[in-house]
Amino acid sequence: GKGAVESSAVPRRGASDAIEGMSAGTSASAMASASASAGEASKPPTSARTSRSSSASAKRRATIYDTCDVMVVGAGLAGLSLALQLGRDGVRTLVLDPRPSDSMAQASPAAQVGGGTLITPVTAQWATKVGVHAALLRAEGCRVVDDFVGLSSPALLTNGKLAKQKPRPEPDVSTREGAMVAELQHKKGLVGAQSGYLNVKQSELENVIRGECSKAKSVAIAWGQSFESVVEEAEDGTLSCEVADIATGESRIVSCRYLCGCDGRGSRVRETEFRGKVEGFDNKEHKGVMLHMMCECSLGWDLDRAAYRLEQKSLNGFGPTIGGGACEPVPGADPKAYRLSVNAPFTMWAGSADPSESPPLSLLQKQLKPKLPKGAEISDVSWSRFYRMNHFVASSFRRGPAFLVGEAAHSHPPVGILPMNAVIADAADLAWKLSLAVRLGLRPNEGGILDSYEEERRAAAEDTRRSIAGYFSDLMQGKLDPVRYARNDCGLFSSLPEASQMVVRSDRAAAYPVRVGEIPPSVAGLLLTNTMTSKSFQDIACSSLRHKVFCFCSEWPVKMDSPFGGGESEPSHSGRLESSDRSDRSVGSEAGTSIKRRGSAEVMTWERILQNTEFMLGRAFVSQCDFYVLHQTSKIAHTVDLDRHLSCDPVHVVDAESRLFREWFGEDALLSDTGAARGLLLRPDGRVGCIGEFPDFLEDLGHYHHRSGLAGGG
């Protein structure tokens, strides 16, 4: 039988240190050895599987293999990405994977078959935040691709003949492509590698992330360990999970605060914890839906090494289309390595082809020969697979403390740019929300910040499904629109859904060029006075995984020997609050707090603005934020011996030409500005949480914190 194990209610001194000192790629035997050295007793379960109970289970040892903040099931791309970001925030994370070891996981067929080859600019920004971007650039065959439209409109091979390519003129703002490029360069402030894709194999990406996880002290990967089920849920929400050792068959209990299913289409977490609660996800291929084949092989031909779209037409190329496919180079040193995709024979569509089966080389050659140039040779197939154009999106991504991530939540055909990047986006979104929930806690019966994971990522999964289905629909109708695909796929122009709780939209902010939920434009040449270095806004946005609050000051007429007004120095002001008619105005009523305004005009210095910001967000939340004060002058006063205590030390930034202000708030706001201060809250994912003018911006900050449900408010 299986059940809960006995354990001491008091952790033994030294046990945590012994386990924590192990590397993240820990095998089952090494884990058992370390547990024994720490004086740990893991008794095999002897009773029947325990049902969920409202009573709290006995306290367990504080080792990462017995109790953790987050349990991640699956060490694939989703699980590794989630674990790495949680590890960067110091969240104790245990990753379970049934494969015997790290090396065997890398060599397994599942790690090599399929997977994407293009990381979008938004995913590349995430890679910078978690510290793997530089390593990816060094990966074998990795290159930066900044031709967005070219990615969406590869050359066409019809019956093996290369169609004549119309020369692409230089981008002109009068064309849709030119307008998109101009928006990237000017509105978004991104050029070249900053806005480019990274062409790298998914297996290489996983290897890099796995290597970084091994360096994270708060992350451990337990190989050869399988999640079975949750056997108990305590009153405080702590989960007791049954974990089985694949080699020995023995089971043990691990407790966690949150459980994340990153275990793919056949998710055990979805099966056990969402049983009867999830609709729309059937891990079976529907017969009759288009059946395709994909392989990686050596392709010998005389064409340039580039991506091609394959097309087969009847009547020697003049009749209707009767088949299609795609051909793209595989990143790496081998110039003949290509990934080919082609439709299976129509007679097989109604059959029951198993996706785990490999199409034989003879069948691949038969289907590809009419679509490739004469003399093209396919050989040395490293892997091949069947797949159908099926999409599965679970009706729920969260059930209490359990979450579905990546292909456990939504599965798409392995084509195009979006599927791999959607997996990473799931992990990135959930990671920063779980991190805050772990560090700050949630108010009783509230989980706004965790509820927003499903609100945002399920909508994104539906967008991915529509985008892929829309592309193939356009392809069948001959209505391809590469510029639209390029704009949608890169992610730089996307926005969060209206249903998201973790943004504050207001009528006041509707007039600004920057919209809430979007990635704001960037500019270069911002001077950070703490280091006296010049940075772009994107550099600042990607510098950490924390919330960032930006306060704009219209002037700083302060002498260097005085941090603010007094004596002969003029006050450092960020605008005035003319409150003579609003002495009883309350700010942040939604959060149950208020800021009283005096009857006379009040000078709002930057330090007072930050003090009010702390009041609205609470010091606990503020401790998880970075603060930036932007000035339109190079005369920055020191901040020593301020007469107001601030729990945070803001970074003062000089934007002498007000370029960032213009991009965010508009030229009209700059020309008509009378000294009013403005602010912007940037979420850890680089999207705008709220934006506005003080004191309204303070009110929006209060709403944002209240909606999050995080404890430790002002």
Describe this structure in words.
- The structure is a single chain.
- The chain has 714 residues and is an alpha/beta fold.
- It is built from 22 helices and 30 strands.
- Strands 1, 2, 3, 9, 10, 11, 12, 19 and 20 form a 9-stranded mixed sheet that branches.
- A hairpin with a 4-residue loop joins strand 22 and strand 23 (533-535).
- The longest helix is centred in the middle third of the chain and has 30 residues, at 448-477.
- Mean pLDDT is 80; it is low at 1-25, 32-61, 556-602 and 637-644.
How would you briefly describe this protein structure?
With 714 residues, the chain is of the alpha/beta class. The chain has 22 helices and 30 strands. The relative contact order is 0.11.
Describe the structure using short key phrases.
714 residues; alpha/beta; nine-stranded mixed beta sheet; 21% strand; disordered N terminus
